[in-house]
Design brief:
Layout lengths: L1 H14 L4 H70 L8 H14 L4 E8 L4 E5 L14 H8 L5 E2 L3 E2 L12 E13 L2 E12 L1 H10 L7 E5 L5 E3 L3 H5 L7 H4 L5 E7 L2 E9 L6 E7 H7 L1 H44 L12 H40 L4 H16 L3 H19 L5 E3 H18 L4 E7 L7 E3 L3 H13 L6 E10 L2 E8 L6 H7 L14 H13 L4 E7 L3 E9 L5 H8 L9
Parallel strand pairs: 13-15
Antiparallel strand pairs: 1-2, 1-6, 3-5, 4-5, 5-6, 7-8, 7-11, 9-10, 10-11, 12-14, 15-16, 16-18, 17-18
Helix pairs in contact: 1-9, 2-3, 2-5, 2-9, 10-16, 11-12, 12-13
C-alpha cells in the first residue's frame, strides 16, 4: 500500500517543479498544434482535390466542345463527298457527259472553296477522270501507290481520313502547295455504259483544324491539347515541329489506345492526367494533357490562404489554452496537496472540487486508498491459488495408470519382436515427458503443446489398436504463440474415454488450431455419443464431479489454469449434441512466444500487462 501511495504522489511531484499550469499549457499547445497540422493538411488536400477535379472537368468540357467543332468540320467533308458521289457521279456517264460532271463538281467546289482544296475522281487504275479546280496533274504521280488510294481500295465500304500532308498531285503555276486532310472512298462510276470501280478524293484545307487546335492551346498554365489518329500518328500538336525534329517526344501511341475518359499517365518520369475525347467517323483522338505540376502551381494561392487561417487560429488557441490551463491546474494542485498530506500520515479529506472531471478524480483517489488493502489481499489470494493450481498440474502430468499401460504395451511388443512399433512408442513417450517437464515452465509454445498432444495420441492409437482416427489441422502461424502447458492432453483423454472408446463404427477425433482476430482457438472435436447442453454447461461449473476414467486433471482444472495465467476472459468453451459428438475449444489471447512474454506470464502478469 505504501509503495502505491509513493508512486502516485511521486508522479505528481515529478510534474510540480515545472509548474502544473505550464505543463497543462504545453500539453494543450502541442495538441492544438497537432490539430492545426491535421486541419491544415485536410484543408489542403480538400482544396487540392477540388482544384484537380475542376481543372479536369474544364479540360473535359473544352475537349468535348472542340471535338464537336472538329466533327462538324469532318462532317462537311463527308457531305461534300456524298454530294459529289450521289448527285454528280451516279447521274453521269464519264464518256458522254464529261461537261456535266465538271459542272457539278465546280458548283460544289465554289460553294465550299474557303475550306476545300481539291475534288478528284480516279478510276481503279489510278488514272485521273476529273478534277476541280481544273489543273494539270503532275507526270507519273503514282496515285495507285499513295496511302489514301490504297486504304480506300482495301476497305471499300469505309470512308478514310488521312493525316495532314502536302497536296502534290497537280502542278501549280505559283508553286503554292497546301497542307490538306484527304477523305477517300471507293465509288462506282460509269464509262460507256459500263460500271467500274474508282476512288473519290476530297482534300480539305488543314488550316481549319489548326485554327481550332490553336485556340485550345492559348492557355498558359502548362496544359496542352493535341490530335492523333487511331495508330498514334500525330495530326496536330503544339510542339509538332520539335517532335518532327526529334527535340521532344509525345506518348501518342499509348494514348491512342484509350477510349473516351480520364486516365493517369507516366511519361519521361512525369505523372500526367490525360483527358481523351473520341472524334466520330475517323477514329481520331483529341487528347488534353495536364501535367501534375499544373495542379501544384494552381495550389499556391490556396497554400497562402490556408497558412493565414492557421496562423489566426493558432493565436486564438494560444489565448484559449492559457485560460483553460489556469482553470484546470488550480484544482489539480489542491488535489495534489491533499494527497501529500495523506501520504505524510494524516488522513484529511481528499479535495473534491473544480470541474466535473477533477471532482471525479478526487473521488476516485479517495476510493482508491480505501480499496488498496482489499486489492492487495485479493492479489495475494490469487497468487496462492495460481501456485496451488500449478502444483496440481505438475503432480498430474504423469498418470501412473497411463504410464503403466504404455510400458506394459512396450514390453509385449518387444517380446513379440515388434521392435519397430516398440521403438516408435518409446520415442513418442520420450517426447511426451520432455514437453511435460519443460524445465519446470508452465507456459510453452502452441507448437510444443500440439507436439505433446500428437505424441500422446500416437501412443493411445497403438494401445487401442487404431480403434479410432486422429487428425491434426493447425495453421502454421499460431505455432509461435504462448499457451498454458498440458491443456490438450486432458481434452484428448476425455475424447477417447467418454467419446469414441467402444464405438462400433470407427471413432474420429479432430484437433484444430486457428487464429480468430486477437484469439488463438485450439479445439478437440469427436464424433462420439455427446451430451446435452445442460450436461455440457455443468462440466466447467461442477469441479467436484467424479471422473469415471481419465487422468484426473479434469476440464475444470484446465479452465482455471488458463484463467489464472491469461485472465477471466479466456478459458474453455464446450459445445455438444447427443449422438453427434462433443467439441471443446481452448480460447487464449494471441501472445507471441518470446522469453519476455513467457517470463511475465510465469511471474503472474496478466495478458494485458497488469501488475
Amino acid at each position: 500500500m505504501r509503495r502505491v501511495k509513493l508512486k502516485f504522489s511521486g508522479l505528481i511531484r515529478k510534474i510540480e517543479p515545472r509548474g502544473m499550469q505550464s505543463t497543462v499549457m504545453i500539453a494543450f499547445s502541442l495538441v492544438s498544434f497537432f490539430i492545426m497540422l491535421v486541419l491544415g493538411a485536410v484543408l489542403y488536400l480538400r482544396f487540392s482535390t477540388l482544384s484537380r477535379e475542376e481543372m479536369i472537368q474544364s479540360t473535359q468540357t473544352l475537349t468535348e466542345q472542340a471535338g464537336e467543332n472538329l466533327e462538324d468540320y469532318l462532317v462537311s467533308m463527308r457531305r461534300i463527298s456524298d454530294a459529289v458521289y450521289y448527285n454528280v457521279i451516279k447521274e453521269s456517264d464519264f464518256a458522254e457527259q464529261d461537261s456535266s460532271v465538271q459542272k457539278g463538281m465546280n458548283l460544289l467546289y465554289e460553294a465550299n472553296r474557303d475550306n476545300l482544296r481539291t475534288i478528284a475522281i480516279y478510276n481503279h487504275y489510278g488514272s485521273l477522270m476529273a478534277a476541280e479546280p481544273v489543273a494539270l496533274q503532275k507526270e507519273d504521280p503514282n496515285v495507285s501507290r499513295q496511302d489514301w488510294f490504297l486504304r480506300a481500295m482495301e476497305k471499300m465500304e469505309n470512308m478514310h481520313f488521312s493525316t495532314p500532308h502536302i497536296q502534290n498531285l497537280f502542278d501549280d503555276a505559283a508553286f503554292r502547295y497546301h497542307w490538306v486532310i484527304s477523305l477517300s472512298r471507293v465509288i462506282e462510276l460509269t464509262e460507256h455504259g459500263t460500271p467500274q470501280m474508282g476512288v473519290l478524293l476530297v482534300d480539305m484545307d488543314y488550316s481549319g483544324i489548326a485554327r481550332v487546335m490553336k485556340q485550345m492551346n492559348t492557355q498558359d498554365n502548362g496544359a496542352y491539347y493535341y490530335l492523333c489518329d487511331s495508330n498514334g500518328e500525330i495530326i496536330y500538336h503544339p510542339r509538332q515541329i520539335q517532335i518532327s525534329r526529334g527535340l521532344c517526344k509525345e506518348n501518342s501511341v499509348i494514348a491512342s489506345r484509350h477510349t473516351e475518359g480520364i486516365y493517369e499517365d507516366y511519361f519521361n518520369g512525369e505523372k500526367r492526367t490525360l483527358v481523351v475525347n473520341y472524334i466520330s467517323y475517323t477514329g481520331w483522338r483529341l487528347i488534353g494533357v495536364i501535367p501534375d505540376t499544373v495542379f501544384v502551381h494552381g495550389m499556391i494561392n490556396a497554400r497562402y490562404f490556408i497558412g493565414i487561417i492557421m496562423l489566426l487560429m493558432t493565436m486564438m488557441l494560444f489565448v484559449l489554452n492559457q485560460v483553460v490551463s489556469v482553470r484546470i491546474a488550480r484544482p489539480i494542485l489542491r488535489l495534489n496537496d491533499s494527497v501529500m498530506e495523506y501520504e505524510a500520515g494524516e488522513k484529511p479529506e481528499i479535495y473534491i472540487g473544480g470541474s466535473q472531471e477533477i471532482r471525479h478524480l478526487g473521488y476516485s483517489v479517495q476510493k482508491s486508498y480505501e480499496q488498496i488493502d482489499t486489492l492487495m489481499k485479493k492479489i495475494v489470494q490469487e497468487q496462492t491459488e495460481r501456485r496451488r493450481s500449478e502444483l496440481d498440474a505438475l503432480q498430474s502430468q504423469i498418470n501412473p495408470h497411463f504410464l503403466y499401460n504404455t510400458l506394459d504395451s512396450i514390453m509385449w511388443m518387444i517380446e513379440g519382436e515388434r521392435n519397430e512399433e516398440a521403438a516408435f512408442m518409446i520415442s513418442q513417450l520420450a517426447k511426451l515427458f520432455r514437453i511435460s517437464l519443460s524445465k519446470g515452465r508452465t507456459v510453452i509454445s502452441v507448437g510444443e503443446e500440439l507436439q505433446h498432444a500428437e505424441s500422446y495420441m500416437n501412443i493411445q492409437k497403438i494401445r487401442y489398436k487404431d480403434a479410432f482416427a486422429v487428425t491434426f489441422d493447425a495453421d502454421p502461424e499460431i505455432l509461435s504463440f504462448c499457451t498454458v502447458k498440458l491443456v490438450l492432453q486432458p481434452l484428448l483423454e476425455n475424447a477417447v474415454s467418454y467419446g469414441v472408446r467402444g464405438m462400433e463404427d470407427c471413432g474420429e477425433i479432430r484437433v484444430t488450431g486457428r487464429r480468430e482476430g486477437d484469439l488463438i482457438v485450439l479445439s478437440v472435436e469427436d464424433n462420439g455419443m455427446g451430451m446435452t447442453q445442460e450436461q455440457a454447461s455443468l462440466v466447467l461449473t461442477d469441479d467436484k464431479r467424479v471422473h469415471r476414467r481419465g487422468s484426473g486433471v479434469g476440464l475444470v482444472n484446465v479452465n482455471n489454469r488458463i484463467r489464472l495465467v491469461f485472465g477471466e476472459a479466456y478459458g474453455l468453451k464446450i459445445t455438444s449434441e447427443p449422438d453427434e459428438g462433443t467439441c471443446v475449444s481452448v480460447c487464449i489471447p494471441a501472445v507471441a512466444d518470446t522469453e519476455e512474454n513467457r517470463r511475465k506470464l510465469e511471474q503472474g502478469s496478466r495478458y494485458h500487462g497488469e501488475e
